[in-house]
Structures are given as C-alpha cells and as structure tokens.
# Entry
Amino acid sequence: MRTYPVPFNEDARVTAVHAVPGLTRENEPLFDAICTAAARLFDCPIAHVSVVEQSRQWYKSVVGIELSEMPKDNSFCTHTIMSGEPMVVPDLSRDPRFVDHPMVAEGGPQARFYAGVPLVLSSGFRFGSLCVLDFVPHAAPGEREMAALTALGEAVVAALEKAPAAAAEPAGGAAQDVFLSLVGHELRTPLTIVQGCLRMLEARAAGDVERKLAGSSMKAALHLSRLVTSILKFSDVRTGELQLDEAPVALGPLLEELYEDHALAMEEAGKTFRAPSCSLDAEVLLDVEHIRTCVTSLLLNSVLHGGGTIGTSLALDADGQIELRVSDDGRLDEHVELARLYEPFTVGGDLSERGTTGGLGLGLPLTRRLVELHGGEFEVLAEESGTTAIIRLPKWRLAARTAA
# Structure
C-alpha cells in the first residue's frame, strides 16, 4: 500500500514543477552553500534540496551524504509538501507515520531527526523542500532556527525562479481573500435559509415518516454547510490545493449515522440497506467531513447504479490498514473499462444491472482524490457477486489519533 499522501492538486502541481526555469539536474555552488548553512544551523550532518515529482524525488543539492533519486515511498518530503508549514520530527522512530519507513527501521540508515520547510513557488505551488537530517534524535528546534530555515528556503526558490526573494510570497493574496469572502457569503446565505425552513418543517411534521425525512434533510444541509466552511477555510483557489482539517474520529458511529440518514431513502428507492458491519472501535485521525462526503457519494452511486442490496463495513485488513467498504450486489458489464470510472464525467460505457441514469460524474474521482489526500488508496472491485468500493487508510492514522 502507498505510504505517502498525495496533494489534491497533484497534476497541476507537477506541471508547475516542470515549468520552473532553474530546476535542472545541474548542480550549482549556491545551493550547496544554502544546504551547508542549514546543516550547521541545526547541527546536523545532512541537508538537501529535494524536488518531488509524480512518482519520485530527486535532489537539486545534497551535503553530508550521497543520494540518488528515490521513489516517493522512501521520501519524508512528500509529507512536508502537503502544507505550507514546516515539518519537524524530533524522533522519526517514534512517529507512527515513519516508524516502518525504510530510512528509519532496522536494516536502513536509521534516520531519526528531520526538519524541513516546503519550497513554495511564486504561483503558490509547492515543489519540494529544504530539509536537514540526523541519525540521532533532537529536541524540537526553536522559532529562531525555523525562521532561518524558512528564509533559506525562500532563497532557494528565488534563485530557481531568477527573481527577488520577495517574489516567493504568492501574489494575489488580498484578491483571494476577497473572493473567498464573497463566495462564502453567497453559499452560506441560502444554506442558512434552507436549514431554517427544514427546522420548521421538522417541527410541524405530522407523521413519523415526514419527521424522519425532514430530520435527514436537516442533517444533509448541516453537512453541506460544514463542508462549504471547511473547503473555504482549507483550500487555495489559485492552485486548486485542499488541506485536511484532521481530528480523531470514530468511524463506526459515523457509518451508523449515515445508515440512519439514508435508510428511509433507500427503502423508498426499493433498496435493502444492511446495517453497518464494524469491527474497529478505535478512533482514526482524519477529516471527517471529507470522509463523510466519500461514503455518501459511494452510497449514492450504489443507489443509482447498484443492485437491490447495499451495505457498509469497517475493519482492519491483514496488514493492519483501515478498510472501509461500500458494497452492492450489482454487476459491471464486461465491456466497462474500470479504470475510466475514476475519470471526471465518465459513465464508463454500458452498465449491466446498474443503469446509467445520472452518470458517474465526479463521485469516484473526487473520492479517490480525497482518499489519496489522506495517504490512502481507493479502488472498485467488480466481481460476479457484486461491486465493492474500498477506501483504505494507512494504519499510522490509528496510532496517530492521540497526536491530534
């Protein structure tokens, strides 16, 4: 299974990386000098400027060790570029994300300390990091050291873009704030009205069915409102980037809640919705609104295109990874290209026993992007007995729940 998260805007980010004029394989003394300064600043033997591409990481400069390009599975910097903030790990062997990492575990070089800052282009895209490494743990560095490392990172970007260091600050910040403010207002106003009307309908509903429908609609409106707030707060309209609002969440109760919310609608659609099967009680560190969006999208896809029986389950797989499944007893036509189901606006050809009303739209590709943003994997299994959508999340999200 993949061991690293994937930025939401990965395709656009990689395109921006390839367009950086000074980002070539040829080394220059300037970048070696910056790495040497960073290593001395943190009293570390190793420092490097990394470049993170689609499936690999290579180095513009390295001091203290010889490194060739490596797959992203072996890269710490794939985690650093997930936000605009520095990443500091005082002891890699005690961090659940890296305890099994080949650079950390026994048999490898057994790296322990890492501190890195993302390298942010003037366009807002992050292409790599300036980082330091040591083979012994360090105490957490102070603000002075991290501010200096950030400044050195900005110097790397300025040199690569052939621009003054001030250009490393993304342009258009004020315009972006105005845009987000206006969009947020326009989205929240009708949602507030919808929620108010649903509250009144719920209060005045005469029968149990009407009250359940109003209650389910109210929960859906609240979820949409929270999702809008999260996207506006944690997204970047310039780059298409999206960050996670992570917190420890019990997935079992979330599946139970979604079951209660959708059971009546499933019944009205002539479907049998089985109660969730959950064998995992522990909390998981994740963005609950995005996971809720993923599962809701998969349930809707099963209602529109699946068979007569739909169910969800939550368990750990044989490797200890978290596995969330949405299954139905519908079957994909043999002519369907399953890989194309991940593409936006793709119906996927003729579907047998699944219908084509509404198409597959953005549901599957959006789910895949959000799952990969969590460092997980998403796949759809088409078998004779039915179709199963699987969300796998890395096991470190279990161990990391107490760190939130």
About this structure: The chain has ten helices and 16 strands. The longest strand covers residues 126-134.
